[in-house]
Design brief:
With 269 residues, the protein is α/β, with parallel strands linked by helices. It folds into 2 domains: 109 residues, Leucine Dehydrogenase, chain A, domain 1 (Rossmann fold), CATH 3.40.50.10860; 136 residues, 3-Layer(aba) Sandwich (Rossmann fold), CATH 3.40.50.720. The chain has 9 helices and 12 strands. The protein is globular, with a radius of gyration of 18 Å. The mean pLDDT is 94.
Amino acid sequence: MTSENQLITGSTRLFAVIGDPVEQVQAPSMMNALFARLGIDAVLVPAHATPARLAAVVRGLQSTGNVDGLLITVPHKRAVLDLADEVSPTAALSNGANAMRRAPDGRWQADNFDGEGFVRGLRAAGHEPAGRHVWLVGAGGAGSAIAVSLLSADAELTITDLDENRVRTLAERLSPHFTGRLHSAAGPVAADLAVNATPLGMRPEDPLPFDPALLPSSTVVVDIVMKPRRTALLRTAEKHGLKVHYGSAMLSHQLDLYLGFFGLGRQPS
């Protein structure tokens, strides 16, 4: 079976990726191609839910018997924790979830694979985070998950966010688990990797999350924005001779994790 001839039938299992907006999501094309390649009778579709309608959408899908799971994107990763019946330790520490599965009794079980996918993507590209200093810009849902996994991978981490309360709250939650390796800063940091974990870059009119020109020439600039692939941040970094790492790697290295979480046959490698 290929993505070109995959058929949706009455027995096809349904998954949805929920966000606001959803036009930028890459998960449907990647997951549906994977379903087709592995012969899994399932389909992932985008579902647009505003914050005001999130609970109604999640509860409605929970009431739909052939919906087996959800992927969660901006800005709902924190809010869905209140709609989950069970929350994994990783999601609790990250204070956000990017996946929910239906348990046999119909309850939603929440987990977060953003950070693990991000670190796997870095390693696959030859950017081992262990022992390196990472400057993370953005302490929101994705940023929090990435922070947990980078610290778990033995990186040293400095976090910046326009919302100082976000940084303070994240530091208070994580510092007891990663003593001495978590810092905060208001501006550019001389680090081995500089990561944009904000949504800035999704729209053409967005400002840069930070100026790559202020970074050392050895810094690798990383963006988690997936569409467009070459964001303004990465284009600017390349103009200044810096190495870059694309956002799609974070998602592509979560695919096996999703399959294992949803019980679809192939376990994470």
